[in-house]
Amino acid sequence: MTIAQSAQRGEVSIRDLSKSFAINGRSINVLKSLNLDVKPGECLVIVGASGSGKTTLLRVLAGLEQADGGRVLIDGAPVRGVGAERAVIFQEPRLLPWLTVLGNVTFGLEVRGIARAEAEERARGYIRLVGLGDFADAYPRQLSGGMAQRVGIARALTVQPEILLLDEPLGALDAMTKITMQEELARIWHEENVTMVVVTHDLEEAVYLADRVLILPKEKGDTTRLIDVDLPRPRDRSEIRFVRHREALLREFGLH
Amino acid sequence: MSLQQIERPFFVGREPHRQKSVAGLVRQASEAAGSFLSRYGVLLGFLTLWQVASSLGWINAAVFPPLGTIVAALWDGLVDGALLDDIAISLQRSGTAFVAAVLVAIPLGLFMGQVRAVERALDPILQVFRQTSALALYPVFILLLGLGEASKVFVIFWATLFPLLLNTIGGVKEVDKKLIEMARVYGASRLTVFRRVVLPGAVPSIFVGLRLSATTALLLLIASEMIGANKGVGFQVMNAQYNFQIPLMFAAILLLAALGLIANFALVALQRRLCRWSEVIG
Ligand SMILES: Nc1ncnc2c1ncn2[C@@H]1O[C@H](COP(=O)(O)OP(=O)(O)OP(=O)(O)O)[C@@H](O)[C@H]1O
Ligand SMILES: [Mg+2]
């Protein structure tokens, strides 16, 4: 373990990580000796063709899936299962239908044994942060898809993780809501000073959010690539440099 | 643009009060009448047809007495207390069996639904028991437990157990795995996952089982009171038929139906209280 610790926590180190699955008796290498460091407070976006292992990588980082080889270190300590310094935002909101918005957002804190009154106070702050202040007492079935997803985001933020892992968090939303939510995520990331690892299919979203973009290979011969996005924030989608970055990403996929 | 503007919140609180003008009241009353008719119209029509057909002799009044006669028989039975005794003893039999089934089936079902190995090991024998008619086993129960209350209660218990057990197991198994994973991500222990995710998630399905079981418990009264009984609503149905007291027979049948409706209504009301988060279908 290195002692060269920065003041801020939330560093992810991926060392020689590999993972394969057996499908119909055939072994498929999904991740092959992946090496990567995510700096504290960085926003890393993962893109790649369908089936390239984005979800698998995120689940290994979350501790929901075990790697076959190599390891993941969080602030220098190896990952063994889920941990309190990490929170996951899934593609679906995964709200408990029998709890109100407030109940869902306090869920993570209550599971960790934090007293109800304190949990609720913290939760209300984050419910306001995601713009649902008037809906604390609503049930999930009374929410739209975008609102439900924001509740899921609030729930993850309430436990104040160092690292947020997001698997296509906005994938199910319509274009308009998606854009506002991207702005929202960028703002939350900035305000909460949290490390984010975001999986997405949307290259514009990648350029909008990322400090760096990781492109996972699809075919055997392909390589893993890492692209810097050094654009000022908040980012402007219509700006020429933004558009160039997007086009560069498209070319990486051979689509342009 | 802010998020709140994009997704215009709909009204979560209660509706604004309607104006209470005379015209409004009339409209409300006719709306209520309309919705009542659309729900109960066919039932009322059926009852009317019965009454008319029987009193005008379109159908044999000895087999299908007019409703008035049936209701009169019911009233007499209730007033002189004979039917009340029957109700009491029948409710005691069904109630004991139902409560016993609840006490066995829900804990066992929750356990079986949670622990794969147990479920795998017990499922085959459960399927065999379930497919074996309780009525066919009644003679066996009588041999084992005698002709008294024990065998009567036990045959009802047997028939009541399986719908509840299978629905409880199903409810536990069908709880969304993604919700369980979400809870694990927040560090929930197995017990917490069970208490906060599995159990509440299984409640609607458990209620389906409770309602099926309650209905079964009352249905089985007829069979269980057919042999070795001299009291009970089910006994009264059979007895009145032997004695050709057809109005009394129908009165007892009506009583059974009413008990079933009341049990179902009570369970639906309880479910509504417990599951305010979901739409309960009555
Ligand atoms: N639990 C599993 N069992 C077997 N194979 C799996 C499992 N999970 C993933 N895989 C396989 O691993 C590969 C990568 O899957 P993964 O879900 O990580 O892809 P992805 O990049 O997230 O794709 P998408 O963009 O479609 O979500 C796929 O070939 C998939 O079939
Ligand atoms: Mg995926």
From TrEMBL, chain B:
Name it: Sulfonate transport system permease protein
Family classification: Belongs to the binding-protein-dependent transport system permease family.
* Biological role stated in the UniProt entry: Probably part of an ABC transporter complex. Probably responsible for the translocation of the substrate across the membrane.
Primary site of residence: membrane
Compartments where found: Cell membrane
State the annotated membrane topology for this chain.
Multi-pass membrane protein
* Gene3D superfamilies named in the record: MetI-like
Q: Which InterPro entries match?
A: MetI-like, MetI-like_sf
Membrane-spanning residues: 57-75, 95-113, 125-147, 153-172, 193-224, 244-270
Taxonomic lineage from the root: Bacteria, Pseudomonadati, Pseudomonadota, Alphaproteobacteria, Hyphomicrobiales
Which keywords does this chain's UniProt record carry? Cell membrane, Membrane, Transmembrane, Transmembrane helix, Transport
Question: What sequence ranges are listed for the domain ABC transmembrane type-1?
Answer: 87-267
Name its GO BP terms in alphabetical order: alkanesulfonate transmembrane transport
Sorted alphabetically, the Gene Ontology cellular component annotations on this record are: plasma membrane
| Pfam families given in the database record | BPD_transp_1
SUPFAM superfamilies listed in its UniProt record: MetI-like
